[in-house]
Structure formats: structure tokens, C-alpha cells
């Protein structure tokens, strides 16, 4: 497509679950909205390398956006799944305490979850856990009935369909390589098949996931100074052999660790169980799984699932978290910011959209719509 002299209203960078949710929310016959995605199709990066869990909103302390969007997104996702026939299952989840110290942590999480507005939380005893999940060993637990799992591809397809239906153009193999501020709006350069095309747009929404800091830098933002530098934190998964039978009905999580939620058991919609994700700080994105990490997974799972054996698990897949938090740093909230304060009104950066980004996607989209409508 020739973009020379094209004028559009809104340019969304990245067709992951967040960019597509925003496109679905902003799509309107009265606006020209374009989504540019550098890969050959949508959702090939973090949005297809995750646990596909609809989170409840328990963990997020001092992270008001994560807490708010996760709780709101949980409610909205169930509504969206029903309305647009996206596959999901409201499995529920238990965070388990292995000892007295962890029991106190579980109680703290319970009150944090209540404070965040998460629904369906209750503290449960060892015998209640045994009744719900006979294979799980723990001194106590935090039950979340609003947690579930979702077909993330079905969700993305649905967002995309809604956007396209209302006239949004979603262009693949289209990498944004330049963002230049004009008197009003921006000139965005897009590389397609080695050729550069230009569009003029009033609004730029940066949903570039792992590379959202690099995209912000294209607009002249000093990412170190702004606190936008993304750190890659890889998470591997090991599959549990289906021949062991169904060991759990709910998702089972340990108490969270510094950079992740701890190696937990998740189920997919076919009922297959997997363990993960672990946490490894890396410099490059690769989705391989190291067989040598089997022992770490086995030891972590054995604590709450004594029936598991080393030979029951095998390397499966990996994802990479786009974290604002570096190794040893404090937990960080999402950044969703209109850059008017940096002289760049109408440039909306979404940075550090790690978990619970999938759950939060419909709530983030509504929030961004509000920011866009202030600028248009
Ligand atoms: C291991 C793991 C487990 C997770 N589990 C869960 C979970 O269970 N529940 C949950 O709610 N969340 C979970 N998450 C978080 C969730 O997956 C992410 O928050 C979400 O997928 C982020 O979506 P996104 O659209 O922001 O990013 P992405 O999916 O990464 O999409 C960004 C897109 O931008 C494109 N792009 C980048 N640069 C450019 C450019 N210059 N030009 C054009 N396109 C560009 C990329 O190609 C990519 O397609 C998990 C994440 C990980 C890593």
C-alpha cells in the first residue's frame, strides 16, 4: 500500500492482545485507524507465549493500574467470552502455603486482593484443600473462584474482527521505524519489504510489547531518563505427561517470588497440565526451553504436588516478560502515559505490559480510548 501523503487519525503500533483490544475499542467508521505489525500475522510474541490465565487481581500492591485493570479486565473478559463465543473456563485457583511463614504471606495476599477489589476470595484450611484437590499438599490456601483460563488466540481474533468490521486496517509485515513530531500530530515511517512509507497521524499508540521502549525512543524520548527501559525476563514451561491423569481441577500456585508468580500448575482448555513459568533475566528473546531446568521445576512442583515424578515432565514452551523492573528491583506498575509533559501530546506509550496484560486488555483499551478522545 502506498502511504505517501496518507492522513490517518490513529496509528496503533503492535498487533498483540493489547494493540488489538485498543483497535477494537477505538474502531469507528468516523475515524481512520491503522494497526502496524512487523510480524507476518498478529500475536506471535508475548500474547501467544503465556499461561492464558484470566487473573483475579490479587497480587498487585503499590501498582494501582495493574490492580484496577486486572479486576476490571477479569469481569469484562468473562462478558466478552460469552458475547463473542470465545472459549474459556472458570477453573478457579488456589495459592498454597507450604509452611507457617507462607500461611502469613497467603493471609497478606488475601487482604491485598480484597483491597484491590478482587472477587471470590476465601482463605481455606488444609482439609478444605484436600476436599477440593486431593493430590495437593499444603498447610492452608487462598481460593480464588474468579480465576479462569481463556483461548488467547480466540480473544485476539475476536478483537481483530471487531476492529476490521468497523473499518480499521491491520497491516502485517509493517515495522514502524520512525516517529517524527509535526506542528500537529506525527509523521510515522513504516518499513514494508525494504521500502519506507510515511503516514501522518494525529495519535500514536505504542503497544510494541518487548520493544515498546525502542519505539518510544524513536519519538525522541530518553528511555533511561523516563524510566522506560524494558528488561527481558524469560519464563519456561514444562508439560506434565497426560498419562499421569488429571492431578488437579484448579490452577495451583505457590506463594509468589520476586519477579514472577512462582512455578505453578496451569491447565489449558483441553485439560492438559503444565508447570511454569520460571524466571530468568536474559538479554535476547528466544523461546527455547533448557532441559537442564527439569530439576528446578520438579522440586518446585513436588512441594505441593507430591505425586509428581521427574519423568512426568518435559520441556514445553517459553515466553519473555517485558519488565520495567530489572533484576533485584522493586515490583513495577504498567506505564500508560500520554506524553504531553514531554512535548509529545497524542503519543500514548504502553510500556511494561507484562502479566496481567492479557487479563487487563479490555480494561486498558477502555482507558486508552478515554486518553485518545481527550486529544482528538
Ligand atoms: C511467561 C508469561 C506468562 C504470562 N501469563 C499471563 C497470564 O496467564 N495472564 C495474563 O493476564 N497475562 C499473562 N502474561 C502477560 C501477557 O501475555 C502480556 O501482558 C500481553 O500478551 C502483552 O500484550 P502486548 O500486546 O502488549 O504485547 P505483544 O504480544 O508482545 O505484542 C506487541 C507487538 O508489537 C509488535 N512490534 C514491536 N515492535 C514493533 C514495531 N517497531 N513496528 C510494528 N510492530 C512492532 C510485535 O511484533 C508484537 O506483535 C504472561 C506473560 C508471559 C511472558
Q: Which SSEs are present, and which pair or pack?
A:
Layout: E1 6-13, H1 17-26, E2 33-36, E3 53-54, H2 64-84, E4 88-89, E5 93-97, H3 100-116, E6 121-125, H4 126-132, E7 140-144, E8 148-150, H5 152-165, E9 169-171, E10 175-181, E11 186-192, E12 195-206, H6 212-218, H7 223-226, E13 231-240, E14 251-253, E15 264-267, E16 273-276, E17 280-282, H8 294-302, E18 313-323, E19 335-339, E20 344-351, H9 357-375
Parallel strand pairs: 1-2, 1-12, 2-9, 5-14, 12-20
Antiparallel strand pairs: 3-8, 4-8, 5-7, 6-7, 10-11, 11-12, 13-16, 13-17, 13-18, 15-16, 19-20
Helix pairs in contact: 1-5, 1-9, 2-9
The protein binds flavin-adenine dinucleotide.
The site of flavin-adenine dinucleotide (FAD) has 42 residues, from helix 1, strand 10, strand 18 and helix 9.
Commentary on this structure:
By secondary structure, this protein is an alpha+beta fold. It has nine helices and 20 strands. The protein has helices at 17-26, 64-84, 100-116, 126-132, 152-165, 212-218, 223-226, 294-302, 357-375; strands spanning 6-13, 33-36, 53-54, 88-89, 93-97, 121-125, 140-144, 148-150, 169-171, 175-181, 186-192, 195-206, 231-240, 251-253, 264-267, 273-276, 280-282, 313-323, 335-339, 344-351. Strands 1, 2, 9, 10, 11, 12, 19 and 20 form an eight-stranded mixed beta sheet that branches. Strands 13, 15, 16, 17 and 18 form a five-stranded antiparallel beta sheet that branches. Helix 1 crosses helix 9 and helix 2 packs across helix 9. Flavin-adenine dinucleotide (FAD) is lined by residues 13-19, 36-39, 43-47, 49-53, 55, 175-176, 207-211, 215, 235, 277, 319-321, 353-359.
Amino acid at each position: 500500500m502506498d502511504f505517501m501523503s496518507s492522513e490517518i487519525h490513529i496509528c496503533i503500533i503492535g498487533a498483540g492482545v493489547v494493540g488489538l483490544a485498543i483497535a477494537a475499542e477505538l474502531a469507528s467508521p468516523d475515524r481512520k485507524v491503522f494497526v502496524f505489525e512487523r510480524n507476518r500475522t498478529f500475536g506471535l510474541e508475548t500474547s501467544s507465549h503465556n499461561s492464558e490465565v484470566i487473573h483475579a487481581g490479587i497480587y498487585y500492591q503499590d501498582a494501582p493500574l495493574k490492580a484496577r485493570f486486572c479486576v476490571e479486565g477479569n469481569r469484562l473478559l468473562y462478558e466478552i467470552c460469552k458475547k463473542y463465543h470465545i472459549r474459556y473456563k472458570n477453573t478457579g485457583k488456589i495459592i498454597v502455603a507450604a509452611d507457617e511463614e507462607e500461611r502469613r504471606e497467603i493471609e497478606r495476599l488475601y487482604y491485598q486482593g480484597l483491597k484491590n477489589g478482587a472477587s471470590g476470595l476465601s482463605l481455606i484450611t488444609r482439609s478444605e484443600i484436600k476436599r477440593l484437590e486431593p493430590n495437593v499438599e499444603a498447610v492452608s490456601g487462598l481460593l480464588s473462584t474468579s480465576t479462569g483460563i481463556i483461548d488467547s488466540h480466540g480473544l485476539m481474533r475476536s478483537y481483530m474482527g471487531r476492529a476490521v468490521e468497523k473499518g480499521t486496517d491491520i497491516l502485517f509485515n509493517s515495522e514502524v521505524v520512525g516517529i517524527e513530531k509535526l506542528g500537529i500530530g506525527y509523521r510515522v515511517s513504516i518499513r514494508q519489504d525494504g521500502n519506507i512509507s510515511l503516514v501522518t497521524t494525529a495519535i500514536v499508540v505504542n503497544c510494541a510489547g518487548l520493544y515498546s521502549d525502542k519505539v518510544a525512543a524513536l519519538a525522541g524520548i530518553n528511555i533511561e531518563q523516563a524510566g522506560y527501559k524494558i528488561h527481558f525476563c524469560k519464563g519456561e514451561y514444562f508439560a506434565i505427561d497426560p498419562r499421569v491423569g488429571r492431578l488437579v481441577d484448579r490452577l495451583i500456585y505457590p506463594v509468589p517470588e520476586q519477579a514472577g508468580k512462582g512455578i505453578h500448575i496451569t491447565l489449558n482448555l483441553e485439560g492438559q497440565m503444565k508447570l511454569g513459568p520460571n524466571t530468568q533475566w536474559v538479554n535476547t528473546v528466544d523461546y527455547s526451553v533448557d532441559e537442564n531446568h527439569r530439576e528446578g521445576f520438579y522440586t518446585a512442583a513436588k512441594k505441593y504436588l507430591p505425586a509428581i515424578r521427574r519423568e512426568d515432565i518435559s520441556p514445553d514452551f517459553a515466553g519473555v516478560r517485558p519488565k520495567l523492573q530489572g533484576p533485584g528491583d522493586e515490583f513495577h506498575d504498567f506505564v500508560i502515559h500520554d506524553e504531553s509533559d514531554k512535548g509529545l501530546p497524542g503519543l500514548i506509550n504502553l510500556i511494561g505490559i507484562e502479566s496481567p496484560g492479557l487479563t487487563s486488555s479490555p480494561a486498558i483499551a477502555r482507558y486508552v480510548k478515554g486518553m485518545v478522545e481527550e486529544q482528538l
